[in-house]
Automatic annotation (TrEMBL):
Species the sequence originates in: Serinibacter salmoneus
Lineage: Bacteria, Bacillati, Actinomycetota, Actinomycetes, Micrococcales
Keywords: Cell membrane, Membrane, Signal, Transport
Disordered: annotated segments: 26-53
Residue stretches making up the ABC-type glycine betaine transport system substrate-binding domain: 59-306
Cell location: Cell membrane
GO biological process: choline transport; glycine betaine transport
Name of the protein described by the UniProt record: Glycine betaine/proline transport system substrate-binding protein
A Pfam family that the UniProt record links to this protein: OpuAC
Bias kind Acidic residues: ranges: 31-46
SUPFAM superfamilies: Periplasmic binding protein-like II (SSF53850)
Leader sequence segment: 1-23
Length: 317
């Protein structure tokens, strides 16, 4: 489990920042006001807005290890909330740890809950102690992907063509819902018990995908949509005629059981939050498929928000 804390605002700065819109934060910071009356009016408005926010000003976000849409959205919200004066802490961990911690009050938010299939077992176990804050993306899909020029077209082909892929199916984290679905549904349904199912981590899977496609070798990996890898590599999904990977899923934001009491203003923003395909793909590509920001996901999120100044303002109604 890894932790990072960005910056803590002084109390006076936090109160002032609460009333500022995200667009105004970047615009007003470099301006001076010659009209004293206008300046007084602006400060009064800011103070009133700050007083209206009754949230606790510390937020702890749990980020699922290896799930890049969750990483991207978590850092997007981290940037937005810090601009609003919150102190944000993030913890990256396996999805099971996040559900346990969220239910126990160790985290306030987790932005990557897949239902009705992928995280169904976690929701069944911990749902009574969580708050469902709504769906922000409704076209998510578990997949098994191969390089575009490989021979298999369907999961039904893999058993007979396993040698073409070195008898390896490359997976992600052992605790992931995708891993469980592959083990419990895909492999037995399509008779893939003869293939070595390798599970370790998403970065390891992506490294093998990168190396094998670069070398012109066949590869088969567990993956999901949305994911930036579809833009970065020449890959396609195998057909799933038996429907073992399920239909399109929804990605939810889950909060702690008492988040509506501790962070009512934040909850109202999250309940208004959605991302379209093009928005999510753009954010992911900036973070994971570009050299511009390296691994500075906060900087990528801030740059996207700067380029889309109406986005955060729209969440506040």
């Amino acid at each position: 489990m890894t932790r990072s804390t960005r910056r803590t605002f002084a109390a006076g700065s936090a109160v002032l920042a609460l009333g500022l819109t995200l667009a105004a934060c970047s615009t007003d910071s470099g301006d001076s006001t010659e009209d004293g009356a206008d300046e007084t009016t602006e400060e009064t408005t800011d103070a009133e807005a700050g007083a209206a926010n009754e949230d606790e000003m510390e937020v702890h976000i749990g980020i699922p290890s290896g799930w890049d849409e969750g990483i991207a959205v978590s850092h997007l919200w981290k940037s937005m909330l810090e601009d609003e004066g919150y102190t944000v802490e993030t913890t990256t961990a396996d999805i099971g740890v996040l559900f346990t911690g969220l239910a126990g009050g160790d985290f306030d938010l987790m932005f990557d809950g897949w239902l009705p299939l992928t995280h169904a077992s976690y929701w069944e176990e911990y749902g009574d102690d969580l708050t469902d804050l709504g769906v922000w993306y409704d076209n998510a899909k578990l997949t098994i992907a191969v390089n575009e020029d490989s021979p298999a077209q369907s999961l039904a082909d893999l058993a007979e063509m396993a040698d073409e892929y070195d008898n390896r199916l490359v997976g992600i984290e052992p605790g992931a819902g995708l891993t469980a679905t592959t083990q419990d549904a895909v492999i037995p349904t399509y008779g893939l018990e003869g293939m070595e199912y390798v599970t370790s981590s998403t970065p390891a899977m992506l490294a093998e995908l990168d190396s094998r496609t670069s070398a012109g070798e066949n590869v088969v990996v567990t993956l999901w949509r949305p994911h930036w890898a579809y833009d970065a590599y020449p890959i396609r999904d195998l057909e799933d005629p038996e429907g073992t990977l399920g239909e399109a899923e929804e990605i939810h934001t889950f909060g702690s059981g008492d988040i509506a009491e501790t962070h009512p203003t934040l909850v109202s923003w999250i309940e208004s939050f959605t991302l379209a395909d093009d928005q999510l793909f753009e954010i992911e590509n900036m973070m994971f498929n570009s050299d511009e920001f390296g691994e500075d996901y906060d900087a990528a999120a801030a740059a996207w928000l700067e380029a889309n100044p109406d986005f955060a303002e729209g969440l506040k109604g």
